[in-house]
Amino acid sequence: MMVFAALTAVALPARADAREGDIDGVPYRVEVPAHWNGTLLLWSHGAYSLESPAPSDIELTNHPATKQWLLDHGYALAASQFRVPRGWGVVESGLKDQMDLLDWFTANIGKPRRTISAGASAGGLTAVLLAERDPRRFAGVASLCGVLGGTTGHFNSALDANFAIKTLLAPGLDLVHVKDPQANTTNARRALGAALDSPQGRARIALAAALADIPGRYASRAPAPDTVAGQVEQQTYYAAYDRGAFWGLTRTDIEQRAGGNPSWNTGVDYRTLLARSSQKELVKRAYSEAGLSLRDDLARLDAAPRVKADPTAVRYLARYGTPTGRTPWPVVTLHTTGDGNVPPENQRRYAAQVRRAGDPANLKQLYVDRGYHCSFTASEEITTLRTLLTRIATDHWPTTRPTALNSAATGLGPDYQTVFDTDPEPGLHPTTPSFTHYHPGPYLRP
């Protein structure tokens, strides 16, 4: 049985005092229930796509049902839309705009008894950095699907995958200093689509994906396909679409903000990188099926011209940012095992940072056996938050055995058991809680 201290009272639907406005032109939304318990959850959203407008609604949680549960149980919610809501300017923007909102909340609503810094994806990174940079303002951190290996490694990893695609499949593509972002992205997608049609092309996609730890599991609810072709197809969805913006707008945007190219692969040994990759066995199978020499293709990567970074841009990404690992308060993380946008190896890198600079006893890392990025049920998010809140209230972590977590999540009822999935069509679909034991491999690139 999982025990959550002082968190089990039955709650009725809560009326919330909702306030919207702007702080120096930056929109925000705050919701405070009538019987506020004194705890504020400050939510940091992820990096919205540069290929479309930012949402008009300001999100307060990852899953919409999580928001209502928190309000019903007395928690106040606040979020800034950020001055820069799209692309990787969200981290720099969020670090200022969220603190401005916290100051506004304190002055206009009241000083929270405790504040939780929470967020998802790039917002999961922002949530950690906010608390690290102003630790006295926060009681704990909840980072969902966070880029906790750091922005530098995230962009270097994208460069590694794209470098292999350019070298082995499409030499005309731009890697950095992209001249025509839209055309470069379109050409990359076409090249990947064409490569899928042959065993040789699939083998080279598998190698490129492995260099960024991209798994062959794109659908949220279905397991990874059994076949090489099926898994490589799902890796391609990540490489062409979810991470496809690294061929164009995401790359040009960060270079403009950072004052140059922040990514490099000088000195990288791709044989070593592949040997450490979580996807190396899929690569071996793919090359065997294709009748290709993996050794020869790795030699081609080693011989190809490398990409140098601009020091000014490297310093920018170092600031916005890589977690130091300091943990004067408890941190809980939640990640899907099949995430190809922000692979779960990010969590291993963060745990290593905490061992160096913080207190490992203050870190609890949870995993869900599911594909895709940030694909959690509300029940899993709520159970994760309750784990953190219990740790804050009692100074002890409750049990986090997967069976106990799944039982607690199931007990929240059917309204909280949906997850976003692209199959059979994009939207929320029913599923069951899927907490699991998981040990991610090494993070490939600093």
Automatic annotation (TrEMBL):
Gene3D superfamilies recorded: alpha/beta hydrolase
Q: What segment(s) does the record annotate as region Disordered?
A: 426-446
Matching InterPro entries, A to Z?
A: AB_hydrolase_fold
Name-wise, this protein is Prolyl oligopeptidase family serine peptidase
Species the sequence originates in? Actinomadura montaniterrae
Q: What is the lineage of its organism?
A: Bacteria, Bacillati, Actinomycetota, Actinomycetes, Streptosporangiales
